[in-house]
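Take a specimen:
=====
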Amino acid sequence: MDLRMAIAALAGTAILCSQTPSSEATGRQLYESGEAALKAGRLEEAESQFLKLAAMKPQDLGAHVNLGVIYMRQKRWDSALEELRKAERLAPKIAGIRFNIGLVYYRQGKYHEAIAPFESVLHDQPDWPKARLLLGFGYLHEERFADAAAALEPLWASSSTDLNYLYALAVAAGNGGRQDLEDRALARMLEVNKNSPELHFVIGKAYLSRGHDEQALAEIEKAAEADPKLPMVHYTLGIIYKRRHDWDRAKQEFLADIAAEPDVAFNYDELGNICLGLEQSEEARHYFEKALERDSRLPASWYGLAKLDRAEKRYPEALKDLDSAGALDPRSASIHYLRGQVLLQLGRKADAETEFGTVRRLHQDTIDKLEQQISGGKYRDPQIGTEQK
C-alpha cells in the first residue's frame, strides 16, 4: 500500500484504496467513475463523484485522498489540506499521505510547515528521494544550512548531474561550515557543465548568496552574454545593480526579465521597491499590484502598498495591507512598527501601543530581517529548491 501511495503522490494520480467501497453498487460506481474522470483530467466530474462517495462513506480513505489530489491539481490548497488531514487520521502509517501534506505546504512556499511532514516520511522511508530533496530545499529556505547539507548529501549518487541540486548543495554546505562538500559540489558543476552559461549563472548565484557581489557580477554577465534568454539571469543582474544603487541599470534588468518571463512576481516586486525608494509612487503602486496579482505571498509588496496608502492618508487600506504582510511574516518589526503608526492615525492608541510593544520585544530577540529583504539587502533566489514536478 505504501509503495502505491508513494507512486501516486509523486505522479499526482488517482489512488486505489484497499478499502474498496462496500458491495453496494452505488459506492462502487461512484469510486470507479471518479477514478476514471481523474485519470482523464476531468477534475470537476471526479470531485463530484468522490464528494458523493465521502458523504455516503465518511471513513473511505480513497475518497479523501483522491479529493486531496484533485484539489492539489486545482491549487485549492486549503481544501487539499483538509482532505489529506482526514486521510491521515484514517491511515496515519501511510507515508504517501504525509508526503502530499508536505507537498501542499511546499507548493505554497510554506517551507517551515512542510518540514515536519517530510521528516516523518523519511523517518519511515529513508530512501524516498523526492521527500529527501524537498526536505533539503525546505531546510535551505529556512536557512538551516547544516541540516540542508545533511539531507541533500545522500542524494549525490543519483543527482550529481543535476545543476540545481549541486547549486543547492553548494550553498547549504558553504553556509553550513562544510567547505569540503562545497568544494566537491562546485568541482562537480565544472565537470558536468564545463563552460556553459548555466554554470556561470549558478556559480554567480553562489557568490551572490555569500555576499561576494563583484565575483557574482562577473560570472552572471558571462552567462547573460552567452545566453541572454537564460531564465532569471536578468533578474539576478537586477539584484546586483540594485545593491550597487545603480537604479537605472537595475530597472533595465528587471524589465528585461519581465519581457522574457512576464509571470515572475519577483521582478515586479523589485521594481516596486525601486520606484518606492525613488518616490515614484504611481509606478511603485503599479508594480506592487502586478506582483501580487502573480503571487499574493510577497510580504514586501504588501508592505510597499501599505507605505503608499499611509502616505496618501488611506489608513484603512494601509491597515489591510499590513494585515496581509503580517500574516506572511509575523515576526517583522518593520511591519509591526508601521502598523502601530497607522493605528495611531486611526485613533486606536491602545492597539498602537500593543504594536510598539511587539516591536520592542522583537528587537530584543533578533535583528529585523524583513526590512533587509524589502530594501534588497538580502538576496532572494526564487529558483533555489524549485520543485521539479
About this structure: The mean pLDDT is 87.
